[in-house]
Amino acid sequence: MANIAVLETPKPAGAPPRLSSFGAWCDRNFKWLLVAPAVLLILALSIYPLLFSLVVSFINYDFQIPGHAFVGLKNFEMVIFDPVARRALLLTAILSGLSVGIEFLLGLAVALVMMKSFRGRGLIMSILIVPLFISPVIVGQAFSLLLQRPFGPTNYLLSQLLGTDVTISWLTESPWVYLSIILADVWQWTPFMFVILLAGLTSIPPNLYEAAELDGVGAWQVFWSITLPLLGPMILLALTFRLLDAIRLFDTIFIMTGGGPGTQTYTASYYLYTVGFTQFHLSQATAGSWLFLIITAAVVALLVRRLLRVEKA
Amino acid sequence: MATTRPARRGRRLRIPLARIVLLGFFLVFVLIPLYWMLNTSLKPSNDYLAIPPVWWPDEPTLVHYEAALFAYRGLEGLINSIIVSSAATVLSALFGSLMAYSLARYNTGGQHLSFWVLSQRFLPPIAIVLPVFLIYRNIGIYDTHIGLILAYTVFTLPVSVWMMYAYFRQMPRSLEEAALVDGCTRWRAFWTVAVPLAAPGIVAAAVFAFIACWTEFFFALLLTSRNAFTLPTVFRAFIGFQGAQYGEAAALAIVSLGPSIVLGVLAQRHLVRGLTLGAVRG
Q1: Which of A234, A237, A288, B71 could form a disulfide with B67 if both were Cys (CB 3.0 to 4.6 A apart)?
Q2: Please, what sign has the CA dihedral across residues A175, A181, A187, A191?
Q3: What is the ipTM of this complex?
Q4: How close A91 comes to chain B (CA, Å)?
Q5: Helix axes B17-42, B246-266, angle to 10 degrees
Q6: In DSSP terms, which residues pair with A59 in a beta bridge?
Q7: pLDDT tens across B93-116, in order?
Q8: Would you call A151 and B241 a contact, using CB atoms and an 8 Å cutoff?
Q9: Could you tell me the domains of chain A?
Q10: B interface mutation test: which of A43, A45, A292 has the most B CBs within 10 A?
Q11: Min Cα separation B63/chain A (Å)
Q12: Can you give the pTM of this predicted structure?
C-alpha cells in the first residue's frame, strides 16, 4: 500500500494530458480505433461481398432479365452436376499436388546445397529469388515464348538433343500442355520453398551436426534423424502456404492455354471465371465459388490446425 | 528424397561437384526464360522463325518496346499500375500498422481478431471478386482507380498486418511506457515513439504489399476494363499471339519486371518474413 502511494505522488508534476471529453473517449477506446479502418475495409470489401454472393447464388441474377427470381439450390445443382466443373476440380487437385510436390523436393535440394556459405552465394541467392517478384502473367508469357511452336526454341533444342525431329505443340496438345503448366509453376514457386526451407535449415543448431559427426553417424542417417525431424514444422508451413496458393491456379492458364485444348486445362478458378464472365451465368458462378470456398476452408482448417499444433509443441 | 542425396554426399566427401551440378542446373533453369524474353524483345521480326533460332540478334532493335508502350497502351497500363499500386501500398501500410500495433500492444480482440484477418489471406480470390464486380458496377466504381485501390488495400492487408504484428511484438514496450508515464496520449506514444522504431518493419511490409499489387492480375482483369487497366492485364492482347506479337509481349514483360525485382532483391533480408506472414523470422 505504501509503495503505491509513493508511486502516485509524482503524477501531478508529470503533467497528465488535458483532454476534451472527445479526446478522453478516443484515448479510452484507442485500441479499437486503431483496428477500425482495417476491419471496416475488410468488412466492406470481403465479408459483405461474400454475404452478397451467397444471396446471388440463390437467385437468378441476370443483367438482361429484370427482377431476380429465387431459384433455391438450382445454381448449386448446375455446378455440381456439370462434368466440366468436376473435372476442373480434379485437375486443380492433381496439378497443385504435383507442382507443390516437385517444388518441395527441388527447393529442399537447392536449400541443402545453399546451406554452407561459399563465394558468390549472395549473388546466386539474389538471382534464385527473382521469380518470386514476377507477375504470374509474365511467367506464363515467358514460357509461352519458350514453348510456342514455331517460335520457341524448345522443339529445336530437343530435336538436336534427341537426334530426331521433335514437333510438339506444348500449349495445345495434351498431355504436354499439363507439363508446360507445371513447368511454369515450378519455375516461379520453387524459390518459395527454397527460401523458407533454407531459413529452417540454418536455424538447426550446428552442434547437433558436430555431435553426429563425432559419433561417426552417416550423412544419410544425419539427414533422416536430425535434419528432417527438426525441419518438420517448417516443411509443413511451406507446404501449407504454397498449397493454398496453388489451388487458385488461374493466371498462367489464362495466358498459356486459355483453358484449352477444349476445356482440358480448366482449373477450378478458370472454370468459375468462364461461367461468370464469358457465359455471364453470374449466379451459377457465385454458387460455384461458394462451393470452392467451402472446400478451401476445409483444407485450411485441416492444414492450419496441424500447423498450430506443431508450433505449440 | 533421391534429389537430396548427392548434396549430402558432396558435403561429406568435401567434393563440391554434386553441389555445383545441382546449383548450375537450377541457375540455368531460372535464367533461361528471362534470357529468352530479353532476346525476343530485342529481336527484329525477321529473325522470329529462323532455324536454328537466333540466340542473340545481330542488330538489336527497340521497335517492339515502342509498339508495346504506345500501340498496345502499355504506357497507360504502366501509369495505372504505378498509381494503383502506390496508393494501395500507402493505405495498406497505414491501416495495417494501426491494426498491427493494436493487436501487438493491447491484444485487441484476442486471438480471434488476428486469426480472422489471417484467414482473409486464404480466401479464394474468385469468391471475392465475383460479388465485388457486381457491387462495383452497382455503385459506379467499376473500372476506376479508386475501386482497384480499395480492392488491393484489402487484398494486401492480411500480409501487412501480420508482418507488422510480428515486428511490433518483438519491439520492447519500455519506451512507449516511459512516454505514457511522461504524460503522452496513447496516440502520441504510438506515432512519435513506436512508429519511428518500427520503420524498418513498416517499410518491409510496404515493399511486399507493393510487389503483390504490381504483379496482381486476377482482380485487375475482372474489376477494370478500358480505363483503369494495369500493366499485367495488357498481356491479354498477346494471348495466342495473333499476328505473332512475340517481341511486343516480351518487351512489355521486360518493362514491368524492373520495379518489382529491384524492390524484392533490396528487401530480400525480410523475404522469409514476407512469405510466411511474419511466422518465421528468417
Answers
A1: B71
A2: negative
A3: 0.90
A4: 16
A5: 130
A6: A70
A7: 999 999 999 999 999 988 889 989
A8: yes
A9: 74-312 (1.10.3720.10)
A10: A45
A11: 18
A12: 0.90
